[in-house]
Specification:
The chain has 544 residues and is an alpha/beta fold. The chain is built from 21 helices and 15 strands.
């Protein structure tokens, strides 16, 4: 069996994928996604950019003839060339397997090897910014194979990371033994008769070409990993207790789970209720959701999530726009995430509500689209605003446009889904040196629907992502194939091609995200009002 660096890399990420790559019918694999295609393009571009700074030689050999490639590479090493790009190294391992190493660079250093008073060390060009464990395991793999050819383990291996001027030096005395452990595990797994047990982790699995295959298997098995909250560690813990299906988990007394590492009373209750929700196909209220009126209101330990009143004698944004030195800071609530949600908070209403969603380009560190849906209940209108940076330099402009709109409605709550929008507004304020008198009152109005929902109810869904929840509610995106990942690819293509159709697709998707957030918020309010009808009365009294 041939073991190369790519197979070892994929094994570290998922034991099942390389097994399927070797043993499964390749026709069952999905096509490469747009985002994965973009990531590969980005990696190739980065390699070209880094290699442009190097003087190197390449072995000349027929394509895919690894034996000829090895011979040509060894000849260059024997000649003592300064560096080698696309070298081919191949050695026997445990008399049964071949290890194939093709490091991005082999760099000549002083030392004593089979070739003379020089030695080579491998250098890997990575797209990431951090020296991840998987990078260092692969660097150790290249160094080990190289050591079998030159007769000496190199002093180090290099990682050329994005955004770093100096190469990261891998401590091979630490990582080569760990690499051997992974390598032995990998070989043993590849020689099994059946594939390793699956585990669906959408964040990791969504880009894999075997995702559809594994997901179909998980659905047919009613696999526990389909339940939100069941992590790989918790899955193992549940298996040890004989809890192997949603049915057995739903029938479990939460007290059985409370003392497990990583569990507590709230987590145990929530994960059992999640299984019950999954089986009965209906939502449940979590035990921790309660009425604030049931708790002594002077208790300083209970935080209150409340839409703040930002009325001031003078609007600080007008002062900011007029370059006035006057600084007026409205009284605002805490800007930290809340530890408890109350029913009154969820059903609280306002005459004008704002729904906010961002599209970003991570590799450019750019937030290129700030989408805002203004729902005015007083005049029964819904208006969508799309602040779009057609070029990266326009981000500052759309930030200013966003601020203008937010201060048109200084008392409106700003609903969003997950913490990204909150964190991004804080970051943009710092980046463009916006006074805190302008940013803090806006942030104090943010209401995270994801936080409110996940702390108050369980739903019969496989993920608490916006798309999964909204689809369960019956909401439909106009472009069913659109996603945040595809928007990253589309915006990249827009910058390269100037095709305005791509921008229009992204804007439609972003608007639908805002409307989906609105839909989820409305459902949550209605559900909580039904379960806690007194919360409406309590909230009305409080607002009076």
């Amino acid at each position: 069996m041939l073991i190369n660096a790519e197979l070892l890399l994929q094994y570290q990420r998922c034991k099942r994928r390389p097994f399927l790559d070797i043993h499964q019918d390749r026709n069952q694999r999905a096509n490469v996604s747009d985002l994965l295609h973009k990531l590969q393009q980005d990696k190739n571009f980065r390699k070209k950019k880094v290699l442009a700074k190097w003087i190197f030689q390449q072995p000349d050999y027929p394509r895919r003839d690894t034996q000829a490639g090895k011979a040509a590479t060894v000849e260059l090493m024997r000649q003592g060339v300064a560096s080698i790009h696309q070298g081919v190294l191949q050695v026997n391992y445990d008399n049964k397997h071949l290890l194939l190493s093709c490091p991005d660079l082999l760099v000549k250093q002083p030392g004593n090897s089979h070739f003379g008073d020089w030695v080579y060390m491998p250098a890997s060009i990575e797209l990431g910014k951090r020296p991840k464990q998987e990078y260092q395991i692969l660097a150790a793999f290249h160094a080990y194979v190289l050591s079998q050819i030159q007769g000496l383990t190199p002093p180090t291996a290099l990682l050329l990371l994005r955004g770093k001027d100096a190469a990261y030096q891998v401590e091979l005395t630490k990582w080569i033994p760990l690499m051997h452990e992974k390598l032995v595990e990998c070989i043993q797994t590849m020689e099994l008769q059946n594939p390793p047990e699956l585990f669906i982790s959408r964040q990791k699995c969504s880009l894999c070409h075997w995702y559809g295959n594994c997901y179909a298997d998980a659905k047919s098995q009613k696999h526990l990993s389909l339940l939100p909250g069941v992590t790989p560690i918790r899955y193992t813990q549940l298996q040890d207790l004989g809890i192997t299906s949603p049915e057995t988990l739903a029938a479990t007394n939460p007290e059985v789970l409370e003392d497990l590492p990583g569990f507590d009373r709230a987590i145990a209750a929530k994960i059992v209720l999640q299984a019950q929700s999954f089986i009965e196909n209906r939502p449940f209220v979590l035990p921790q959701l309660t009425l604030r009126a049931k708790i002594h209101v002077t208790n300083p330990q209970i935080p209150r999530l409340k839409i703040p009143n930002n009325k001031t004698e003078i609007n600080p944004y007008n002062s900011y726009k007029a370059n006035s030195p006057k600084k007026i800071i409205p009284k605002s609530s805490s800007l930290s995430r809340k530890s408890q949600i109350f029913a009154e908070d969820i059903v609280r209403s306002a005459p004008v509500e704002i729904y906010f969603d961002i599209e970003a380009q991570p590799d450019l560190n750019l937030n290129y689209l700030l989408g805002v849906l203004v729902v005015n209940k007083e005049n029964n209108t819904e208006t969508f605003h799309s602040f779009l940076a057609e070029r990266p330099k326009d981000e500052k402009l759309i930030w200013r446009q966003f601020l203008d709109l937010m201060w048109e409605y200084p008392e409106a709550p700003i609903y969003h889904f997950c913490v990204y929008e909150f964190d991004t507004v804080k970051s943009l304020g710092k980046l463009y040196r916006t006074p805190q008198t302008i940013v803090k009152p806006i942030l104090s109005r943010f209401v995270d629907i994801y936080e409110q929902l996940t702390q108050s109810v369980t739903l019969p869904v496989e993920s608490y992502a916006l798309k999964a929840i909204a689809k369960w509610l019956g909401f439909k995106w106009r472009n069913s194939e659109a996603s945040g990942a595809k928007c990253i690819y589309w915006y990249d293509q827009w910058l390269k091609t100037g095709d305005r159709n791509l921008l229009e697709i992204i804007q439609i998707y972003n608007e639908d995200d805002c409307r989906a957030t609105h839909s989820v918020k409305n459902w949550l309010v209605e559900f909580v009002e039904k379960e806690y009808p007194w919360s409406v009365v309590s909230t009305q009294k409080e607002q009076e």
